Amino acid sequence: MRRSIATVCVSGTLDDKLTAAAAAGFDGIELFENDLVVSPWSPAGIRRRCADLGLTIDLYQPFRDFEAVPDELLKANLSRAERKFEVMAELGTDTVLVCSSVSPAAVDDDDLATAHLSLLADRAAAHGMRIAYEALAWGRHVSTWDHSWRIVQQADHPALGLCLDSFHVLSREIPPDGIAGITPGKIFFLQLADAPHLRMDVLQWSRHHRLFPGQGAFDLPRFLGLVLSAGYSGPLSLEVFNDVFRQSDPARTAVDAMRSLTLLEDRLATLPAAPRTSPTPASTAPHASTAAPHASATPPHASATAAAPHASASATAPHASTAAPHASATAPHASASAPHAAPAVQLADRPGVRRLPPAPRLTGHAFTEFAVDGHSGPELRSALRGLGFAHTGQHRTKPVELWEQGACRIVLNSAVTHPGPAAISAFAVTSENPPLSLARAEALSAPAHLNVREPGEAELAAITAPDGTSVLVTHPGDNWRSDFLPTGTPAGPGAGLLTVDHLGLTQPFDHFDEAGLFYHSVLGLEHLPTEEYAAPYGLMRSRAVSDPQRTVRVALTVALLRRGEWAPAVSDPQHVAFATADLIATARALSLPPLPVPANYYADLAARFGLTDDFVATLREHGILFDRDPSGGELLHLYTPVFGGRVFFEITERRAGYDRFGEPNAPVRMAAQRHRRLTTTP
Ligand SMILES: O=C(O)c1ccc(O)c(O)c1
Ligand SMILES: [Mg+2]
Fold first, then answer.
1. Is 165 labelled a binding residue?
2. In terms of CATH, what superfamily is 362-680?
3. Which residues of 288-321 are buried (b: 16+ CB within 10 A; e: fewer)?
4. 606 CA distance to ligand 2 centroid (A)?
5. What are the residue boundaries of the structural domains of the chain, listed by start?
6. Is the CB of 169 under 6 A from ligand 1?
């Protein structure tokens, strides 16, 4: 399938946008009128530039406020349209998007809208062009996909079809199911956008908060499945209005966008097989002869479907019952199409649908590496010792140390070129099939590079995450430890730390959604519910990803707005959380004072959860924080101060299936770390 991206998705001038789209591997673009208007290039020049980059212009958009208006306005609108058709001819594009009118001049009259759109389609057809009519969710009289489809059906014009935009469809309550029954060939264009669930004005929601598929809450695989079931074979085009993407590096945004489409196509495989759409009679043809370029576009679908070798076999309906989830979806049309119904088709098996190497099962954290310098190195060493770690290995050729306790492994790497605060520079996870993990990463535009190494050293391939962290994928049996000479100090039980519970990675503001999609798609981790909380320096958002077995958890956090100027320069620390089976015993065994927690916190804790005085006193004695989830799972956890300017540690004890990260306690931690920094910095 062809992949396109609307120029509105990315930042910059038209040239920046085109270059980014081409570099990321897109086949085409939707050209936004505004990008054309501000461009120094002529339409023909834009066409040449696109051709040079291997891009087609798949859609020109938008044309606004056209239909169901008084005669005078209609005249003006038609002459405006003529000008646009001329521009489109120069651009070499044949489809224009017409959004449902938002004009106060528009009247609520479907017959009039139909008549006007037919008139426009006549004019378009005379130029060899066609109209894709899109119901904006805030359209004045037409705001749902089914309403726009009724009008398109009523017009029954070969040069008038639908533009379906997942945002407008899925942001409304009207179920999308009937989309599968739309006449083949009548969906002229498909726009894909995801979005978080937000209770807000739908126009604001659409213009500021759209996301690439897989980054939000919409069920886009199912939506795409419905559209493909209706025989759509045009481009999959991303149309994402997002305030952050509009001001981020377009090259990166375009890669993120392509990754989202690749994952979405692959997710089609998870859909139940859908019944093949029957050949609904194509539009009867008063306009057929005028609609030259697309007259032929419609029939191939119809005839291909009609000629399907399975057409008659399906009448025996062995698949009809297996297609349950979609059977009801197509219900209104099902009876009409039943005699022609073909066997269920796996949409993902269609030619041109990309499939990804499956994400192999992850089995845990192999190690976490900190980059340290002459200042932060000693601080981290002493912190690790205080937590019960032992320095067990020294790298054969580099200033790199291995520290261990239980199955927790920390690597301190002093081979840094730029001194600065300590940072989590890399983390390694174990995979049942690292080569497959790397192949998947490559297919998702996240190619691995080999770590610099010396002869005889373990080969570790690293994928670069959006924040620059190297993600290494190793096999549990890989002998990366043989790169380290034993120091002779054994890793003892220490303070009872068992494994890495999670990593906490604060993300750069511009790359938060990109990071979520990266870990979700590349490592196959699932998103856990997003949380927001009020922290001392502003509102924070936290979104964790994890494998189903919870052996690899990464909590991504970001400030909801770009950080204000007054917050300390280094206010976004990263951390490693270790799991223990008994936090109170572990706390007693530590030779490192935990982060002091204010008495007010414990008073509130007792009031909120009805804990016994004794228990609260014990928590307080050890600086342990507490949380309980609605199903009774409990978290006991403690934090350390910040070391090396930027990193800290956490120790967790999860009870009764607690599955979150103690987010309500994060502001307490942040305030305490801030307080400590103020009181201990000279
Ligand atoms: O917000 C808008 O105006 C707008 C314009 C064109 C579209 O395709 C769309 O989905 C929204
Ligand atoms: Mg749209």
1. yes
2. 2,3-Dihydroxybiphenyl 1,2-Dioxygenase, domain 1 (3.10.180.10)
3. bebbebbbebbbebbeebeebeebeebeeeebbe
4. 51
5. 3-292, 362-680
6. no
